[in-house]
Write a structure and sequence with these properties.
Chain A is built from six helices and two strands. By secondary structure, chain A is mostly helical. In chain A, a hairpin with a 5-residue loop joins strand 1 and strand 2. The interface between A and B is large, with 52 and 53 residues. The structure holds a DNA duplex.
DNA sequence: TTATATGTAATCCGATGAGTTACAATTAAA
DNA sequence: TTTAATTGTAACTCATCGGATTACATATAA
């Protein structure tokens, strides 16, 4: 799981809070990264129908789904990521030793189990949950960000 | 979680199966990596009292604990690893926006939850479990590796 | 005393994450 | 129609990290 996941979640929550088209520059500034990276990640979310985009003046990205119906597993799969991935393989299928032969499959299985458990956790966390955590008194009564007027970009 | 984890599990299972001192070269050959890497990883397992070592002729590493009492969480913590780690941080604590301010903590919390769930899974998998998977008919009746005679190194 | 091992550091290489820049294509608005 | 703003995407650089390799001092059994 790379930091793309953190960037994507942060971006979606930001879009959800703004409730209007937001440019990649503005998102990048809020997340603290660069616009090209944001656009690259937004493209994946667009392919997964999680956000929408519009070019030109007043354009950018927008989140117009129900926050309670989008969860973190949706975002993870939109990025084509896993919790843990099994890249380096131990042992050798051609060795006449059951340990050398079989351990890679054992490891694969362990990683799968961890992934599945992680997915179940992510499925239970929605964008709405995160918004409620960030704004325990409601977004309208936010005492720092207010309702995100221009001066807080 | 890096591949060290896979190497460590494979090595411990191999030592458990061999039931005698095994050199880093022999372990490396079975795992398919290099001896220096094995020694580095063995050192961490030694510090955690999971394996023992002996220098000189006939030396190497040995696993002399009860396979049913060592689980994968022991190994993971011996390596000082986590399932997922939170290195790249999004947002900015100095920004007057609750999203930019709070999202990093939200992400941290999600990662922690995933880690804890993963630890619980690893705690339930012992070295004995893996040996039983690799040798469903018992280690003595192993039809490929036999009881790991010299010709199968 | 010698051969075999570990412990550990130094170095190299390749892959990958992240930032930066650039520019064609698209779209809204003047 | 023109202009300005914005995305989509590729190319490039840079730093970091995982892994392999080499080397050598130290320890131990025979």
């Amino acid at each position: 799981m790379t930091a793309e996941f953190a960037v994507a979640i942060h971006s979606v929550v930001f879009l959800c809070h703004k409730k209007k088209y937001v440019s990649s520059s503005e998102i990048a500034d809020n997340v603290c990264t660069n616009p090209a990276r944001i656009r690259k990640i937004m493209n994946k979310l667009i392919s997964a129908n999680i956000v929408e985009t519009k070019n030109g003046v007043g354009g950018g990205y927008i989140f117009s789904l129900k926050p309670s119906e989008v969860n973190l597993f949706h975002i993870l799969t939109a990025l084509d990521e896993k919790i843990v991935s099994h890249k380096w393989h131990s042992g050798d299928k051609n060795k006449p030793c059951q340990v050398a032969f079989g351990m890679d499959a054992v490891t694969e299985n362990i990683y799968n189990t961890i992934n599945i458990a992680g997915y179940e956790i992510l499925k239970k966390i929605t964008i709405e949950d995160i918004i409620k955590t960030l704004f325990p008194n409601g977004e309208e009564k936010a005492n720092i960000c207010g309702n995100c007027k221009k001066n807080f970009i």
